[in-house]
Amino acid sequence: METVSITMVEDVAVLTIDNPPVNMGNATLRRDLYDALGAAGPDVVGVVIIGAGRHFYAGSDISEFDGPLIDPQLPAVIEVIESLPVPVVAAISGLALGGGLELALGCDGRIGATSARLGFPEVTLGILPGAGGTVRAARLLGVPTAIDLVASARQVDADEALELGLLDHVVPAEDLLARAVDLARSLAGKSRLRDRSVPHANPEQVEEAVARHARKARPNVLEAVGMVRRSAEVDAGLALSEERAIFERLRVSEEAANLRYLFFAKRAAAKALRGKVAPRPVRTVGIAGAGTMGAALARACSGAGYRVVLFDTNPAALARVAGAMPGLTTTETVGGLAGADLVVDAVFEDMDVKRDLFAEVERHVAPGAVLATNTSYLDINEMSRSLEYPRRFGGLHFFNPPDRNPLVELIRAETTDDVTAATLADVVKALGKTGIPAGVGDGFVANRVYADYRTQAEFLVEEGATPEQVDAAMVQLGLAIGPFAVADMSGLDIAWARRKRIAPTRDPLQRYVDIPDRLCEAGRLGRKTGAGWYGYPDGARRGLPDPDAVRIIEEARATKGIAARSIDDGEIRARILASMLCAAVQLMESGVAQRASDIDVALTEGFAFPRATGGPLRLLSRWEEDDVIAALTAAYRSCRVTFALAEPATRGELPQAVRAVLRQVAPHEMFERAASR
Ligand code: 3H9
Questions:
Q1: In angstroms, what is the span from residue 341 Cα to ligand 1's centroid?
Q2: Annotation says 102 is catalytic
Q3: Residue pLDDT, tens place only, 211-240
Q4: Which one from 122, 243, 349, 362 is the annotated catalytic residue?
Q5: How many C-beta atoms lie closer than 10 Å to residue 616's C-beta?
Q6: 303-316 tens-digit pLDDT
Q7: pTM recorded for the entire structure
Q8: What dihedral do alpha carbons 614, 618, 623, 627 form, nearest 10°?
């Protein structure tokens, strides 16, 4: 057996799972476990299942979920455990997730090391537990707690697991095996959860748990909640087969396949960031700038266990942050950052301001300290040129609000060395963020794609759509809010300043919509001024169509001689998605983005593009080729300069570079279909 070894501790058989890196359940492991359980002889009085390495079992290998599942499947392995005449104990250290937790629930006892973390992440993958998780959790914990665990996907630590009853005992790691063997011996006989009745729950508590998780839930979460409830009403055998049927149906759904795609896309990005060299240890993070961004970064870093030193020349700003963060070290002089292993700037977005800051920082920090700028669009190569040691400098681009938005772009300047990149990647991971690599280029990756999204949205309004119509068309795709509501929320003035700055270098042939300029000139800077694309009368949070904005839009059309036409939602979505695709292709061609899937990660993590779609590129990769060509043609016609690369589409051809990008993200069956054409 490759992944399971059997050793005897006197009369108890110990099955050790060893399937690096995280003991995930693939076909080999299931086969080996099945065989090892079957090999328990008549002289064995109990069995212990334990993990080698850090984790017990991190769940099923989800790369197997794209095709037909291979026997023996996990329910069959659990059936063997349940049908053994002797007790089986799960000895859990590290993670027991998904199928790993289900395996443990199939055992007669569960004992955890203090490092144990248990959870059902299935709903985040568009499925529900498929090996009895809902059925056995309901019987062990009661319906409300089972709903909470299954629907929230949260991980519980050893103490909470003990309190809930998921674990019978928690012991120091070094005692885990011995105590598990004792437990296997001391259990009087089988104690199968499937034979237990569901603990009585107050109906109000059940309804509360349902209500808590059903709001805004994806369909698979609702099915998971429904299955927990159902499993309390019918016998375990029937519940197990119904759960499995739902699991199978959801597993092959488009949404689940897209979520698996994003899971591996994030891992691919993380792997690329890690590189091959070891990072420098970072214990203290210095943050320069105590504004909104700096304060949020300080919170994020301190939450991840770093010592944080916050620098600002403004004592009032420092005091504001320190007031909300007891224990934070602050400094009014750059010298106070001397002990930092990493310094991140969150100062004003201006080349000279940042250069001066880093020049000063370099005079104080140790030679091995790493420096990172959190610029959104300044040229990092240019910034690095004024440094004495540019090799230890790179970009860490956080997205608003940085303590909640998971995306970080890690930007390598021409001079950034491997150790610096690895150190920044390590910090991104420690912060629990999703990192993607990016090269130097206007707006890096995410903002660059978003810029074309917004540009196209403005074209559509100039041609006749209303802002609310464009927003609604994108909300229908699954976005929480549309581009104009976002613009009003974040303020129109930042983009306005940027347009003014780049005006001298703008290609005069490029189509330019001046409606946002007119809105800004009229003092309509978004929600903060009570008016932008929408009106916000009496401090309303949601914008309402506003006659003054309508007038500005109509005047702008009239000035350009544009007769408004009616545009349907399909055209809105097609043109916006095609524009994002063009931006993505340019990013790939210029090398600013390394993988097409990084772009889907950036948009889903950073801009809340619906994960269920897999991201804009994955979504388009599922379209029929003719529809992609039609969308690109429409984008091209909207501006022949901005979307020049779509020109072949006007002749009925899919541009080669577009095909290459879509192929990278397409589901396998699409690849094969395209290849066989
Ligand atoms: C399930 O169990 C359904 C059941 O109900 C159904 C029963 C019938 N599959 O993240 P890392 C790879 S659903 C495939 O870098 P970390 C990962 O790609 C499943 N591969 O390490 C990477 O490979 P590479 C429920 C997986 O220490 C390597 O392992 N389980 C899987 O930062 C290391 O991963 C989950 O949802 C997997 N399940 O984090 C757990 N897991 O080096 C998903 C890992 O080639 N996994 N890999 O890029 C995780 O959350 C994290 O990987 C984990 C480790 C926390 C475990």
A1: 31
A2: yes
A3: 999 888 999 999 999 999 999 999 999 999
A4: 122
A5: 28
A6: 999 999 999 999 99
A7: 0.95
A8: 120
Cα-to-centroid distance, 87 and ligand 1 (Å): 29
Question: What's the average model confidence in pLDDT over 255-259?
Answer: 97
Residue 669's pLDDT band (cuts 50, 70, 90): low
CA 433, 436, 440, 441: dihedral to nearest 10 degrees?
-100
Domains of the chain in start order, with CATH, are 4-188+199-251 (3.90.226.10), 277-438 (3.40.50.720), 447-676 (1.10.1040.50)
Taking phi over 0 as left and psi of -120 to 50 as alpha, with beta for the rest, 85 belongs to: alpha
For residue 74, which of 206, 251, 233 has the smallest C-alpha distance? 251
Any idea of the CA torsion for 245, 231, 123, 471, to the nearest 10 degrees? 90
Q: Is 129 in the pocket of ligand 1 (CB under 6 A)?
A: yes
Q: How far is the CA of 22 from the centre of ligand 1 (A)?
A: 7
E strand or H helix that includes residue 671: helix 668-675
Burial class (CB in 10 A: 0-12, 13-18, 19+), 493: middle
Q: Which of 17, 24, 73, 601 has most ligand 1 atoms within 8 Å of CB, for mutation?
A: 24
pLDDT over 50 (residue 66)? yes
Span 396-419, average pLDDT: 93
Q: In this structure, are residues 614 and 491 in contact, taking their beta carbons and an 8 Å threshold?
A: no
Beta strands in 250-341 (DSSP E): 284-288, 307-311, 329-331
Ligand 1 closest atom vs CA 133: 5
pLDDT of residue 320: 94
Q: Is the CB of 48 inside a 6 Å radius of any atom of ligand 1?
A: no
Q: Does the beta carbon of 267 lie inside 6 Å of ligand 1? A: yes
**pLDDT for 276:** 87
Closest C-alpha residue for ligand 1 atom 11: 267
Share the mean pLDDT of the chain.
Answer: 95
Cα(89) to centroid of ligand 1, in Å? 23
Catalytic residue among 2, 10, 82, 102: 102
Residues in the chain: 677
Residue 286: other Cβ atoms inside 10 A: 29
pLDDT > 80? residue 128 = yes
pLDDT at 442: 85
